[in-house]
Amino acid sequence: MLAVSARFCSRCGARVVPEEPDEILVSTGRRLRISSDALSVRELMAVVEAGVYHWQQRLSDAGVDREQAAAAIGELSRILQSLSAQLAQGRETMRITARLPAQREYTRACPFCGRGNRANARFCISCGASLVEGAAASQPPVRPPRLRLTIAARTDVGRTRTNNEDSYFRGEFAIGADAFATLLIVADGMGGAQAGEVASQLAIATIKQELTGLLAERDLADDADWQAVLREAMIAANRAVFEHARRNKNRQGMGTTLTMALIHNDRLHLAHVGDSRAYLINAQGVSEGGAVWSLLTSDHTLVARLVDIGQLTPDQARVHPQRNILYRSLGTDPQTEVDTASHPIERGDHLLLCSDGLDTHVADEELARIVLEYPQVDRTCQALVDLANERGGRDNITVLIARVE
User: Fold this and answer.
1) Does 154 lie in the same domain as 121?
2) Which residue, 162, 346, 361, 371, could crosslink 391 as a Cys pair with Cβ 3.0–4.6 Å?
């Protein structure tokens, strides 16, 4: 049984086409509808218009670079003109080219439980049975050694900011009497004048408090149950940040991105809002075609949507002046949508969470190479932070890595 919002089967990795289209809540209050492979041109124009309005409002701020704002408005205007021309020609939708992250495939079925496994797996990830050819078909499943995590993290203010609005957390939560789950979080606050720092820290504190109760109370039978718990914790964090901003006028408009991973046994459960990211990296391959890295989250930004419809290339998106315009975050609106997903993890996997201060300067392929290059995860974190700073360090930089052993 899969969650209603599932796009890939959690067992075999096959694509699942949703029956109903998704919706994106835009800051103007409108919703942008997404079918399985297309975006509405009319509604995408609303997102671009919201970006123009954002920069027009910022022109009144004394500390804003007016040349940067003017360039941003000009670029958005050109995109809006292109979309308008396509609408005039009768085009109502734009085909999506890269919205969904690549997912790992599980092509090797277990002869005992039927669970899909990676092609070169030696043991079934579900029941532990041997997958080695020639093994006796009647042999009882024998579990491989228990997975262990080695975790490290670094956060840095960068080269241009005066304070660090990023926050992170790593820790364990009790699941019943004798089981534990590992929680990893990266949050990137926004709002200025310490408001962003408050938002990211408050969101993490709220999630920790909520999960303490939820994980102790709930009977978590499958991926859908785990994802529901993460979603509830994120919604509570959104409410806490929004109410704090409402009560404190000098912090109105503050918010935060937040990406979290909860790891229990051999399952990884994700919840995500904003443009912080989660990557899965393994030298043995993690997705179709043997790629050693897979981006597990989709950025909730205007620029990411423009990449989806082919208006921008991924390289252009990394340096685009609108790359930080979010259409979804925690705390900026009374309600928010939360992306959730679940994945199996295996020995040799590296889970990397980061704020956009890293991926702005370091491409995905380069990031994966560095992760696999260093034997110690703490050195990996420091190497990535140093590289982002060498290339400008235009934002706060936070990296959190968990290596599965």
Assistant:
1) no
2) 361
